[in-house]
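tokens incoming
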């Protein structure tokens, strides 16, 4: 599932292409991917413009010129592609939105994900349960520690809990734990002050590095996009079970933690 770096990469890149262009055509191939009747959804979008693209946690919010919001949550398997009618991807699309005479934004794999059209108030309410952003103005080391310290349960379970810190999922939770030299399964109640300090630094470094590298999505956003997917090569442990740890040389282990797969290096990640 796309996480903060992937969605932030999409936000940055889309903002270069589609802002202030009129929506000239909307095609809905799967009505379960939207929240309105198809005819109403198309009518509400035609002629509108996206004036700003915002990311909140794992969501993208397309701010329309009439104050409404299109909220995208890709969920597992969802991707987007920005092209034209001549270089459309050879995959089934659930929604297609044309901007001006050149760009078409293709929404692919929205079997679990969705694109909902909401008022500003509805959008705010739908995301109100989300926790603090890792790079938000309200976040600092002391806030980070206060969010995790005193909780019970495993580190990974807390990191992927969107109501605590928003935007981190399976991949980057494991990468953050690796950078902090802690196992994903370590119990929060066993951590010391220096552990929380390393975790905070690790969170910022891992997410920043992955965002700058374009996230781990394999499909480029446009035909000329050479950035998207660069973070896949930066993963030290995630999806690398059986490989050699680049830090200590031990064999990376794939395990299961509360129904989620987890990866760690037993030689240099500790479980206090």
């Amino acid at each position: 599932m796309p996480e903060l770096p992937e969605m932030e990469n999409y936000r940055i890149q889309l903002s270069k292409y589609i802002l202030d262009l009129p929506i000239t055509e909307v095609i809905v191939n799967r009505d379960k991917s939207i929240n309105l009747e198809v005819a109403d959804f198309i009518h509400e979008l035609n002629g509108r413009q996206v004036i700003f693209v915002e990311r909140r946690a794992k969501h993208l919010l397309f701010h329309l010129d009439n104050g409404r919001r299109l909220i995208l949550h890709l969920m597992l398997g969802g991707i987007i592609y920005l092209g034209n009618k001549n270089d459309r991807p050879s995959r089934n699309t659930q929604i297609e939105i044309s901007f001006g005479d050149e760009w078409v934004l293709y929404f692919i794999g929205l079997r679990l994900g969705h694109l909902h059209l909401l008022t500003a108030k509805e959008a705010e309410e739908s995301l109100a349960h989300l926790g603090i952003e890792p790079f938000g103005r309200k976040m600092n080391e002391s806030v980070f520690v206060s969010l995790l310290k005193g909780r019970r349960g495993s580190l990974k379970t807390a990191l992927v809990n969107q109501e605590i810190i928003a935007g981190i999922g399976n991949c980057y939770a494991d990468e953050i734990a690796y950078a902090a030299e802690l196992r994903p399964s370590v119990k929060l109640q066993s951590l010391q002050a220096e552990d929380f300090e390393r975790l905070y630094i690790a969170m910022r470094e891992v997410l920043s590095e992955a965002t700058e590298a374009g996230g781990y999505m394999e499909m480029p956003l446009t035909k000329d996009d050479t950035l998207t997917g660069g973070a896949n090569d930066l993963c030290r442990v995630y999806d690398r079970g059986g490989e050699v740890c680049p830090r200590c040389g031990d064999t990376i282990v794939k395990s299961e933690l509360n129904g989620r797969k987890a990866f760690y290096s037993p030689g240099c990640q500790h479980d206090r």
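note: The mean pLDDT is 96.
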